[in-house]
Amino acid sequence: MSHDAAAAPAHVPDKPGVPERECPECGAMTPADPRFVVWCAGCGWNADPLPPEPPQGRLQGRRRRTAARYGEQLYAELARSGPGAPRLDASGVAAHVLAWAVHLSTVAVAVAGVLLITTGGAFALQVLLGAVLLLVVVSLRPRLGRLPKDAVTLRRDTAPGLYALLDRIAAESGTRPVDVVVLDASVNAGVTEYGLRRRRLLVLGLPLWHMLGPQQRVALLGHEFGHYANGDQRRGLVVGTALTTLGTWHHVLRPSGQRGRPVVQIIADLIMVPPWLFVLGLLHLLDHFTLRATQRAEYRADLIGARIGSGAAAAECTDELLLAESVDRELRRQAVLARTRTRASDREDAAAGLWGRLADHARDIPARERERLRRVAELRGHSTDSTHPPTHLRRALLLDTARDLPAAVTLDAAGAAAIDAEIAPAARQAARWTLRDLHL
Ligand SMILES: [Zn+2]
Ligand SMILES: [Zn+2]
Fold this sequence. Notes:
Layout: E1 20-22, E2 29-31, H1 57-81, H2 90-120, H3 124-140, E3 152-154, H4 160-172, E4 180-184, E5 189-194, E6 199-205, H5 206-211, H6 214-230, H7 237-253, H8 263-309, H9 311-321, H10 324-339, H11 344-352, H12 354-363, H13 367-380, H14 391-401, H15 413-437
Parallel strand pairs: 4-6
Antiparallel strand pairs: 1-2, 3-4, 5-6
Helix pairs in contact: 1-8, 1-14, 2-3, 2-7, 2-8, 4-6, 6-8, 6-9, 7-8, 8-9, 9-14, 10-12, 11-15
Bound molecules: zinc ion (2 copies).
GO molecular function: metal ion binding; metalloendopeptidase activity
Keywords: Cell membrane, Hydrolase, Membrane, Metal-binding, Metalloprotease, Protease, Transmembrane, Transmembrane helix, Zinc
């Protein structure tokens, strides 16, 4: 494998000698590379040949429209006056009030259960009902999260170089360091906290990590630490746990709707409908109250990433995210190939170079295809994930407000290569498991 993960991605220009065809809309000649979608940069013909399915149901449709409107409003506001300090606005207060009400109702159910049991005495039915309520409380208790099982983890002692970089970035963003790093196969990265002591976990997607050049990696990590520094509501202890509790209620109360169920169950389902709708309403309300704050947190994390890794690197990083779908498809293809290999040594070879091959795949995507993907993101706006502002607006905000920001933390090619050498054994373990277990 000649792949050098530490080199900055060079954007491949269109190959000379690619056949051309005439655009059916405007008549301009457009390159027709058989490996990619043929489209016209002049009039936009066929830029998005397979638009996603329209949203299911009115609620989801409305959520997307609201999210798109918020994203645009926030963009305009932030481009005008900068991100400002994180603050709790009216909807943030409403979200907290609602979340506390959810937690108090869990306490109320627990108290009722205990009272039923202690005063039940000889009434077996009452004691039983109390026990059922306590069981319900056990499944409703606020979940603090835990370290994922069967994850490839990197501890401080095995990856001192990586942790040294993470600590520098944490200090620069004014927040405490992470306790553990988990490696996975996503074209993404993320942070959470878990357990009562709120230990910090950074999830690093190996394909994305290898697609990025050294300084882009710093910008990515700066973005993630930006989420810690922001105190993101949805991840917060009060609101985050209320969302999971409501999710459990929703799951428990949801009518089965099965055909041919017995009459008793139909009646039981009908009784469940009003509380289920009530919980659904609460979920939507909490979602509505936090949506704007979540999007604002995302923009703000971008700007922190720019301050730490430089404005240019942060913008390039959002560009790489547009390649996620293509890289994901390539990962699936690699997994299919690897599973056809019978010799153990062949399978080991497949695992050894996996992340580098995915990075090569991304690097081979020509500038013209990248431009098309950028336009697709713009055309689709929020259609994939409404908690994030659209990628093109994130990129635009970075270019508008942070283009010339210098890096506060720098990483050179040698430093990046040293980190890659450190994490190589764990990355290979993650590759083995991914090729074996990836759901195709
Ligand atoms: Zn055209
Ligand atoms: Zn983010």
